[in-house]
Model the fold of this input.
Amino acid sequence: MTAGRGIIHSEMPQQAEGRMRGFQLWINLPAREKMKPGAWRDIPSRDIPTVVLAGGGELRVIAGAFEQLGEVTAGPVRGLSTDPQYYDVRVPAGASVTIPTPAGHNAFLYVYEGAASVGDDARRLPFRSAGLLTPGESVRITAGEAGVKLLFLAGKPIGEPVVQYGPFVMNTPQEIMQAIEDYNAGRLVVAG
Done:
């Protein structure tokens, strides 16, 4: 979903059985794009490609592209100005994988199951922890005793001021006040 000029939404996932996890991640837009039209689309699981990783495990490419051994796998979300890379990575117990990190991007990992050691210095990243990555060309991830499931997220930094109030994110307090006025006047788009 792109909130852009404004979109009112509510996520109400439906599930008949089993365990479901949900992650809501927001990508800030550069000032020049903040007022573009709002947009929404559903991306079914079947449209998210899976790559078998050298070293073991697998990686699902949700946004951006992943390159391994000269083959590029593109996810369903791409073409955004911040060039987001969003991977769901699953590594079996004791296995190690190397994930390329785009030059100039900020990146972090979030462990949602198991634990891992990260980087050349094997820093421990336990369950429900996030790790901010330092600049580099790749990150080495070694799964713990029970394996690891984690999110790898990266994007180009915008380098602009950020002002947030409730669900509104703009660049100045004046823009926040305008967004609230637009919301109160019913000028936002309604989506599912």
About this structure: The first helix runs from residue 173 to 184. The first strand starts at residue 7 and ends at 8.
